Amino acid sequence: MIARPDIVPGNGRVPTAQLRPIRFLIAMFSSVWLGITLLSLLFVYCSIGSAVASVRQLPWIELTEFEWFHWWPFSVLVVLLCSNLILVTVRRIPLRWVNAGVWTIHSGVILLVAGSYFYFTAKLEGDTTVFRRRINIEVPGLPVPATLAVIPGSRKAVRTSEGEWQFQIQGTHSRWPILSEPDVGKDAYAVNVLVNPPVGTPFVRQILDGFPQYTEDILPGKGRAIKVAGTRLLKEELILTLDYEPQDRFYLMHSWALYYRRVGEPEWTETPLAGLPRYNDRIASREQVFMEPTHILPIRPIDHAVEPRDSAGVLANAKMRVTGYLRYAQKRQRWLDGGQRLNPVARVSIKSEPESPHSFDLMAFDPVRKSIENGAVEFLWLDDSTGVERLPSDSRALINVHVPQEDLRFIIPVTAETVVGRAGAFTSIEGTHYSYRLLNVVDDLAMPSGANISVAMVEVQTPDARFTRMVADRAEATQDIHGDDSDPHNPRARRVSLDPRIKMTYQPASAPILLAAHPGGLHLVVNGIQGRMLSRAVVTGEAVEIAAGLSLRVDGYWKHAQSEMKPYVVPPSARERNMGESAAMIRLEVSTAEGTEFRWLNFHPYPLASEEYAYPGRFPYAPEQLRLPNGTAVEFLFSRRSCPLPHAIAMEGFELDTHVGGYTGSVATIRNYISRLRFWDREQWTEPTPISVNHPTEYGGLWYFQSSWDKPGPGDPTGGMSYTGLGVGNREGVHVQLAGCSLVVLGMIFAFYVKPMLIRRRIERATWRVLATNLRKESDMAFQPIDATAAV
Fold this sequence. Notes:
Elements (H helix, E strand, L loop, with lengths): L15 H14 L2 H20 L1 H4 L8 H4 L3 H21 L7 H22 L3 E7 L2 E5 L7 E4 L5 E6 L2 E15 L9 E10 L6 E6 L7 E4 L3 E2 H4 L10 E5 L3 E6 L4 E6 L6 E4 L31 E3 L12 E8 L2 E9 L7 E8 L5 E6 L7 E2 L4 E5 L16 E6 L4 E6 L13 E2 L6 E12 L5 E10 L4 E7 L6 E4 L11 E3 L6 E5 L5 E6 L2 E8 L2 E8 L4 E5 L2 E9 L2 E9 L15 E8 L2 E8 L21 E4 L5 E7 L2 E17 L11 E12 L2 E2 L3 E3 L5 E3 L2 E8 L13 E7 L4 H49 L5 H4 L1
Parallel strand pairs: 20-30
Antiparallel strand pairs: 1-11, 1-46, 2-3, 2-10, 4-5, 5-6, 6-7, 7-8, 8-9, 11-40, 12-13, 12-39, 14-15, 15-36, 16-35, 17-18, 17-34, 19-20, 21-22, 21-29, 23-24, 24-25, 25-26, 26-27, 27-28, 30-31, 31-32, 33-34, 36-37, 38-39, 40-41, 41-42, 41-43, 44-45, 45-46
């Protein structure tokens, strides 16, 4: 045996020492056990990503399920498995006809992986909202028509040389029956627009989609204008028409973006926010938020730079950073005592069995927020504790009358029937020579001193004179006015001292439940139909039973209250499971040469252009404003990244597939809802395309499917239907995936059906060949001639 000499470099052959690592790698990746190991690791990885979401949501990972299967460990495992599969196939499985099934299966797997990688790399998935119609507004003096989205409650003010026009969508009707010839029996989408012109009375203009000839005005409380005023349109110079409200963008799932613009500008500037957290709160200090004592957030600072898209725009000289993120939070106002001015605020909880208590903040000096429950509860401030004795004992508006000479006392209730004005008759006071008539009542009249008073104007007829008494709820403000028919607005009317022969005090209408604060504490008064039911002092934290099953508790009281607004981190036990990122917030810092300011921004599913597109409970619109040192007001909005649609979308209408009997106002009676959409292509709208829940459609390279809709309210089968929600996505590489799956199926058919059949037939042929050979040998031996000599 001759020993092989070492191969010398330079003779065209690779040294053996250099080949050993390559051979080792080839041998290792040709191992079937390596493939089994990689498959096991992939199974564990996929199981964790799909079934154990808490792992991929850890603070140092922060990945969605889609991102988890794009993470580098998954890509490395897939690449290693494909490499192992290719080497095992080439080195261990001979390329023969009998092995065609295995080769086809392995080729299909490789093709499927390549197609899936391309599919998920190019994947776009999002949604958008398409509103059904908009109103085009044309009035004289308006150079360009204004528009108003048809969303119940949306409004717009339009200024012209004549003055300001105000428009509001009062309501819609999805199937308004037409009663005019020649369209009797047809239905149309109807929109009612409340119009408040600069001159004249407000009216409602009704517009029918597709039937502009039936547009007409309606006078609230009077009926159709054609019957009241003899004309179909009260303001013929006002032209309102219905038009499509196209949508040209959609918004990506699981993405962040910051939008900003100068206040007053129509268009947002979008800046993507890549790399922000998603599942875990990030704050630099617990002083930045409100939280429950049982739910303390860990300190995890974040400092994420935001690069504006328009470097020369409104924020050219400012730097923006995201310095906080909250997964589930709400902005809340909390009160602190210690302000510089008197500002009484009380937080009360009202509990009605068996419901949970409802909490309210009452502000004594705020005309709107001093009462709740439609005026049933009112919070007052008394200058001293003696004011408790003067609190009303009746919730009705009353005028107390006292005639000292006859020692006569009676009450005049202030109602719509008793306020007769100057055209009404006098009412005699029985047993006296006096009579009166109630002219008018003015409550909460603002005085130059800053205080508010309530006044009842009573005209009094005595045997020798007639005068108007201004009866105020404060005795020192009551006065008599004589002269010029006792008209208090006449400049020649003279004010004199009160006539002592008749005394009056005015008690304005008050809430049945009064909570009064004074320098000494709090006092609660409850008045019923039989007079005062309860009067007692209360303290913070004490629940007082007002009636059977109804109680009131003062949770907090601040005499010199000052507000503090911060995000409140909702504890995990109180969160709604399906909210997703809808309750997320970020803390945005804007730094200039003059200093740094911050704002907490709520997440918005869609960056709406203006408040007119807001839909209460569905599409919020609450941008945060910030004024830069140069005086420029900028507003910010936190939302998702947007992508342009290849073709703008408009909504034609809805079709409801209902159970027998039609839609009754209950969602349960709907089997399917279908949106009919048009696409803007070649400078025109296409024919309507139906899209339903389980029947998506493709146009311009994107697929559209029904994801949500503006369903009518309970018991209102003709309302709603003002918008449709569409899911939008692409399907790049699907055909490659299908080709890979087809190869795998064909290979399995060949491997598990064709190959066994071929092997069985080969065995049968070999068996028959052996049998034939044996039979031939036996036959040859049987007929072989006998050698006689040999036999002897």
